[in-house]
Amino acid sequence: QKNLVVEEKKHCNVGTIGHVDHGKTTLTAAITKVLSKEGTTKYIPYDKIDKAPEEKARGITINAAHVGYSTKNRHYAHTDCPGHADYIRNMISGTSQMDAAILVVAATDGPMPQTREHLLLAKQVGVQYILVFINKVDLVDEEVLDLVEIEMRDMLTDFGYDGNNIPIIKGSALKALNDDPSDIGVPSINHLLDSLDNHVPTIVRDLESPFLMPIDKAFTVPGRGTVVVGTIKRGVMKKNDEAHLMGFGIKVKTTLSDMQIFRSSVLEAIAGDNVGVLLRSIKLRSVESGMLLCAAGSEEMSNHFKAKIYFLARSEGGRKKPVFSKYSQQMFSGTWNIACRIDLEPTIEMLMPGDHAEVYLTLLEGMVMTTGQPFTIRENNVTVATGIVTETLK
Ligand code: GDP
Ligand code: MG
Question: What pTM did the predictor assign?
Answer without folding.
Answer: 0.81
